[in-house]
């Protein structure tokens, strides 16, 4: 992805167009896992994935620990050790994964790739464009 971003920057400069979409592990809005993907858009170089954000609103280890009959103190100790390994990185619904993922991708674009995503191409079936365009502070 780093090479793809560098290639895009060399071809188009800092302000670039991107195509964005999201997908889920399961159909509908019941999935526990989703991914937001951002692809390069250019007439000069082929489209390539330049960034992704994987989201999960579930962690199997956390669910198993929650079911155990342990003291709050033991659960807190486990939780502190588990934070770095926890699979859950999203607190919302499956339907909010795509916009949240796109927001994260757009926020880090300049720091990670030195690119400003100036034009957003989407499939029109998500809330991602609205989420990114109305972000506060602006992205």
From TrEMBL:
Native organism taxonomy: Eukaryota, Metazoa, Spiralia, Lophotrochozoa, Mollusca
Organism: Elysia crispata (lettuce slug)
Listed name of the protein: Mutator-like transposase domain-containing protein
Top-level division of the source organism's lineage: Eukaryota
Positions of the Mutator-like transposase domain: 10-134
